[in-house]
Design brief:
The protein is mainly α. The protein has helices at 2-18, 28-35, 39-60, 62-73, 77-105, 107-124, 131-145, 148-156, 164-192, 195-202, 204-211, 220-225, 229-243, 255-263, 267-270, 279-291, 295-299, 305-332, 342-360, 363-373, 379-394, 403-431, 437-464, 468-487; strands at 25-26, 251-252. InterPro entries: MFS_dom, MFS_sugar_transport-like, MFS_trans_sf, Sugar_transporter_CS.
Amino acid sequence: MEMEERSLVVSSNRHQVGDGGESPRYTIDEALVSMGFGNFQILVLAYAGMGWVSEAMEMMLLSFVGPAVQSSWNLSPHEESLITSVVFAGMLVGAYAWGIVSDKYGRRKGFFITATITSIAGFLSAFAPNYTSLLILRCLVGVGLGGGPVLASWFLEFIPAPERGTWMVIFSAFWTIGTILEASLAWIVMPKLGWRWLLAFSSLPSFLLLLFYQSTPESPRYLCLQGRTSDAAIILEKIAHRNRTNLPPGILVSSHSYDFEEQGTAVEDVHLLSPTQTKVETSQATTSSMVAFSPLLKLLSRELLLSTLLLWVVFFGNAFSYYGLVLLTTELTGTSRCTSTDTHLNVHEDVNYRDVFISSFAEFPGLLLSAVMVDKLGRKLSMSSMFFLGAIFLFPLVFYRSDGLTTGLLFGARVCITSTFTVVYIYAPEIYPTSIRTTGVGVASSVGRIGGMTCPLVAVALVKGCHQTMAIIFFEIVFILSGICVMLFPFETKGQDLPEKV
């Protein structure tokens, strides 16, 4: 009923514009709301979800491959940790680069290149003859994995605004599926076949992305931004046909030009992000393409500076906490690792598969909490409350640790950090306009990778050095600071249309 009322309001607004002999017009947001979420979006969700499964598997295997390679090649602890760090370093570069590529050349080209690099480098790393070649190939895998935010933004741009939060939570569930699948695969493959087979099997989801690539559509929002409204209209017609609904009557217009005509906005006020349809707009697009060589200037513009800086801190805190908690699960449980012998480590290795497998299920209640809160409480309150609750879960570990208590508290903290990670990937694309959406999310994701690179220094190095209390205090500080930054975000995006301009 609410959807019908919204459609009637949208239709009424369009026909008011059409008074005076002009044809009725509609924007992409109005078309998506009118058509609803249907079969077409389910197919887009399946494809983007497979990419999320791929990234989760490649990330989770780091928990298993590092110790196995260390044992096989007699690596030092520093060399073992470098296998993980080079992946995050590659993701740092890739997330920034692929965001720019997809904003300039299209979402499809962006995730095609990333899937190609991830699949080939991931498969070849199974045949790495030595330590150096393994580092190079895993770094390339990281470069490819950096394109994950492109798929998230691509899927987001097909969802009607009223349902965006719920469906982005469902999309995030594919990450959880990937983590559980990888933990199960490692549990089965590692004891019998070894780490090379695990690397090979884990690259298969990326190859599936390439297999079905030809059937994927370009984002109509991106096409409108490029002035290709006729191509965008064709895709919207396909969505309507697949969903068995109808497009609104009239012609598709970019919301940029729609606002320009409605409000009589001066050209200078919209030159940075507007599309091209008239000679004046074409000139504006030329200026915009020149500015694209320095996209950080847009992200750090006066209007976006506060949101961008706070978002970077939150992404850093999320990645630091999430990957740190995964590592802490194996480092804090069982007999104290700081006095362990090599023999004990080998015996304990099978237990680690079980612990990681069980702890991965903490992500399901995290996703359920996100689904319940994100569209009811809003993005900001959902994230901040989960950060503070996660800090509460970790606090008892500062004073007392037993296996049962540690496992339970880490499980609860992982529920919270899964929830915040899910919501921030919904919030981040919603605060940036279409022209720099994937760049903005990509750069924020890159900052998050720095958190992923530094967390082993706390979660592993401090714990193995018998400084467990210091490690927990570090995580407490990160949780609390991240929650405070969320509270300082300048605006809420719940239920709002995706912005086309600043």
